[in-house]
Write a structure and sequence with these properties.
Low-confidence stretches: none
Number of strands: 5
Order of helices and strands: HEHEEHEEH
Radius of gyration: 14 Å
Strand content: 25-35%
Strand order of the largest sheet: 2-4-5
Distance between the termini: 11 Å
Number of helices: 4
Structural class: alpha+beta
Helix content: 40-55%
Mean pLDDT: 80
Amino acid sequence: AEMARKISKIILDDSQMTTLQVDSLLNQVTARLSETNYDTTISVTVAHSATISAVPQLPDAIVELVQNAVEHHDKPESIVKLVLTEDGDMISIKVVDDGPGIPEMQRVILT
């Protein structure tokens, strides 16, 4: 729950917005994660490259989300997907894994 609050604070801080290429952003994230000792398969799905306005710490927040998914996984090898979707002017980057999910109590705090 503490990590979720930290990530939310990073993402919602619009005082330092910058322009980022989404495909480069996700490649940067996967490169940083490949340097870890995790036994994880990470895949990236991007329909096409897009430019977004975001805080410079967005890659850090995504890395934290993926690390959290891996650390709380209940299988020897985990699968994590970074999925980019577009809906009009809104771009979403989802971290999807095949783990047990977030406990109900923590989901209530996050939403």
